[in-house]
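To whoever is covering the structure queue this week,

Two jobs came back overnight. Logging them here so there's a record in the thread.

Job A:
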Amino acid sequence: MSANARGALFALLAFAIFATHDVLIKFLGGLYSPIQIVFFSVLLSFPLATFTLMRDATQGNLLPVHPWWMALRTAAAVITGISAFYAFSVLPLAQTYAILFAAPLLITILAIPVLGEKVRLRRWMAVLVGLAGVLIVLQPGATELTLGHLAALAAAVGGSVASIIVRKIGAEERPVVLLLYPMAANFVLMGIALGFVYEPMPFSHLGMLAIIAAMAFVAGRLVISAYKAGEAAIVAPMQYSQIIWAAIFGYFIFEEAPATATILGAAVIIASGLYIVLRESRSDASENAPVLRTRTRFETGTFLRTPRMGMPQRGAEQRVPPAQTAPSATQRPHMRGLPGRVPPVAESRKMDTE
């Protein structure tokens, strides 16, 4: 099996587990407040998180290098967690995923002020088309927008903000810091609010919350393995497989038939997201590749994985153009200029990177 095939397989398995994880959230969301679900999910995630944190050999303390960026990321992660859990509990699975899939579009926009990314016309057009797909799903004016729809939009925005901040400071902050602060904030804030919404839970439901935490941990490790094995341009699109699982689970478990608008809007959003991923995979189209090199899963406080995911960070060594490594250019200088031979290039011309 090739490395890319192995990476794609790991990613497909990871997002299948995540989709099952979300089914359990939806089931419990019909019985308990999302505040209670988030609190216990994070609480039961701490033992698994400990093993992840023990592997962080980076020198330093738990004080963030960029406290204000970290505070914004923590707030975004808390909003994303509670919003995503609520959206899953009240909206059809396929509709929730369709809205959450707008995150790559928002990341592309946020990369302009945060990372200094230059977004040219083609990617702008893809973003606009994708946002039109969100409007197709929401159908403002034709259907009543509920708090669940607003929660899904808030989760997409919050997840995008948290992801782009990791892209901004991830090379300088310790993974343990990036992981621990959002978890601690979710635990404290949801714990304070728990007294107002708490409902007694049987042991079986607590067990389901433990399974949710375990699924997030296993799926997170598989995502890391996927990005280590395959190219980001191959692995990243696998996240859209969740919409297939959402349609299957929604139909057979919750008797949810995806609406025509949801199917059409999701297709538009996914198509625009795929175009952005493929466009960023070109070395001359994006300096930062913000969508390719950020999280491919919204953050709920139970997703235990290091932010770097084995992918290159800003400032990392860029891929060398084939012309600089071609055997005809480096090993046979006497054959320069012959038909079919690639001439040596000392450095990329300016026009090739603009």
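Job B:
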Amino acid sequence: MSTQKKIRIGVVGTGGIARDHMKHYVTFDDVEIVGACDIAPGKARAFLDKYDLPNVPAFNSVAELIKNVEMDGASVCTYNTTHAECAVALLEAGIHVLCEKPMSFTLQGAVDMVRASRKSGKFLTIGFQPRYSFMRRKVDAIIESGALGKIYYVQSGGGRRRGIPFGTFVDKEKAGYGCLGDIGCYAIDECLHAIRYPKPLTVSAIATNHFGTNPKYYLGADKFDVDDFSVALVRLEGDVTFVFKDSWAMHADTLGDTLWLGTEGAIKLTSGKKEHNMPSRVMYFTDINGQHIDSVVWPNIPMDGYLCDVELERPIDMWFGKMRGFVDAVISNGPAPVPGEEILFNQAICDGIYRSSKLKKEVEIDIPAI
């Protein structure tokens, strides 16, 4: 019988996204849920009872949770605009943090989170579960191998034909961003993680809300006050150009394909009819001996399945990977699976898009020293 000490996990914010965290936590034999909190009275208690945890205490604030419960790690599943304050409080209390995306609403909030992590010695990881996609990892490996040569142009694609959510997603006071913070930050991470997140320098952007504010297309139009579409030209360090596009609603099936163009080759994620930004296929372009080679990248496993651990090569559920990765990192005391220092650049781009669209001009990105 194992005597391994269980990892003590708390949950901050018990809305919809917290359920995706909890449904995995409760399946892990090495995890013990020790507390939860939510600012809505009774909500945290109902959340814990749903998972048959009547003896686990519930609180109305992150401060009460920290004061009364000993935790090794915690999930921050609150409104976007409160991510920073909750994560900082946990980190300063010596608790590892998994914070849902987007990292924060403001660049300064993200900076504060990274500073708190470094000062406390506890890691901060951001909830980008697409990092655990099987084909995403295959594509990242090709790009990171250097096969494409120098990457000089990156473009996001996809977007939703229709897909505006309800509730706090469209409440500026709570979400800050709309489409940009919901799925846009995923697209930025998909594009830039594989090229090791060059530092963003300038952003010229436009964000609109033509569909969310129109009762013809959205039932909650009278309360909609965030973006449902945005496009941006981002200049990155190393003479890399990044063209960003994303939408919750539009009169088109896609905003285009996701591209990485390099001096020796290119990768294209062809946008099809699959949900959101999931590609229908991955294409690899290069030249060999003066001949154009355009090929499909398949989700293959190792050549000889009898001589390898096939289990490690089979696709896993992205959410399982995210939650298991966090727990394993808490056990080993780091490193963070998706480091806050890295996603700081993602947040800087989101912040730049937001500012540029409001000011209607190009803005410089100035990231404070960490």
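Note for Job B: The first strand starts at residue 7 and ends at 12.

Please reply-all if you pick these up so we don't duplicate work.
Q.
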